Amino acid sequence: MSLTAHIPSHRKPRRSASKLAVRAGVAGGVLSTLAMAGTASATPSSEAAPETTLEMPVLNLDLSAEVTSAVAKAAENTRAAAVDGEVNALEETARTGAAAEAKQAKADAQQKADEEQKAKQEADRKAEAARANRSSSRTTLEGKSSSGGSSSTGSSQGSGTVTAPATGSAAAIVNFARAQVGKAYVSGGTGPSSFDCSGLVQAAYRQAGISLPRVSQSQSSAGTSVSLSALQPGDILYWGSRGSAYHVAIYVGGGKFVGAQNSSTGIVERSLSYDKPTGAVRVL
Length: 284
Fold this sequence. Notes:
Layout: H1 17-41, H2 64-148, E1 155-156, E2 162-163, H3 168-179, E3 184-185, E4 194-195, H4 197-206, H5 216-219, E5 224-226, E6 236-239, E7 247-253, E8 256-262, E9 266-271, E10 279-282
Helix pairs in contact: 3-4
């Protein structure tokens, strides 16, 4: 064969970039091996070597599936992280809102309690001022009555009616009632150290040998009904309706009564204007 004979081209169609890169590396190694083998076995010859075509091994790598899987997994991880972040943010917002609501509710309750306390204090102050005014008015009226409203036959009630001094059984009742002033009020008390309102009336009438019912309802219906403008010492005063009164006391003359009022005041002597009764009955 002639040394000038035509040698066909060994070029192959172009491959994709990724496959070419892989094949280049493999081809380099194969060519190196072939070169070393050819050198070792080469012999002189006057004729050219026969025409040979070398095929490079092809690595059939399909990266698209792996890339798609990796992208999908990354997207899922990103979505899960976003959901977790949103849940955490909602939980934090809920905790913050609950704490703020609890704080506001506590502040509102405290403000309401303070307002109620102030209102109570103001009501107590007004009530005390009203009592002081009534006491001052009574002192003035009683002073005028004692200086110009008395007569040789008795003392004025403040309503213009003249009452004869207590005598006999009435005096015994009045004297006993006044002797108990300052003692304690105890519900159900009948003496001798403490009384309730009906217990005091019952004990006072016992000094005159008169037995009265125990409770105020029955005492208010005993004897004969009399007008508040015609009272006499020893008459029983009542508050409420006759026969169902909730409080009783003893008229002692001079426009005053003695009664076991309540646990705060105990047994006191007061003017009729301090707490005007509903009606009165006369047992003597």
